[in-house]
Design a protein that fits this description.
Length: about 130
């Protein structure tokens, strides 16, 4: 059976809800509003072997070396065959997240391509789900 995980902050919550409305095999969602990379590092691992994972994090952290270190720890602590990172709207954080994704050869989806009201959350998460489920 294919297993998937959505891990992260409020953009992960929204993406997870939109994916699970459209996807027959429900993805596990471990995401909460305002989650930081440091908080995510403390979350209990599920013990499942996920075929795919969407990482939605970085929006609530300052960009820079400390964020790279935390994201790298998260990425190396979870083994997935396919990882897709949602790049935050804030460009400094997006560049930081993108650098970690590139290091591991992971895919990225830039939230900046989706309409937003607050420069943090997409206006329509079903559009994000459509891109992620391709």
């Amino acid at each position: 059976m294919f297993e998937c995980l959505i891990l992260g902050d409020s953009t992960g919550v929204g993406a997870g809800q939109a994916i699970n409305r459209r996807y027959a095999q429900q993805c596990d969602v471990q995401a909460v509003e305002r989650a930081t990379a440091a908080q995510i590092l403390t979350w209990r691992k599920t013990g499942k072997d996920y075929g795919a994972c969407v990482f939605a994090m970085g929006s609530n952290d300052p960009a820079g070396a400390a964020l790279v270190t935390k994201l790298t720890k998260i990425r190396t602590s979870l083994c997935f065959r396919r990882v897709i990172w949602l790049l935050p709207y804030a460009r400094p954080q997006a560049y930081t997240v993108s650098s970690v994704a590139a290091r591991f050869g992971d895919e990225t989806v830039d939230l900046n391509r989706f309409e937003t009201r607050d420069r943090i959350h997409p206006r329509n998460y079903s559009q994000v789900a459509s891109v992620l489920l391709r």
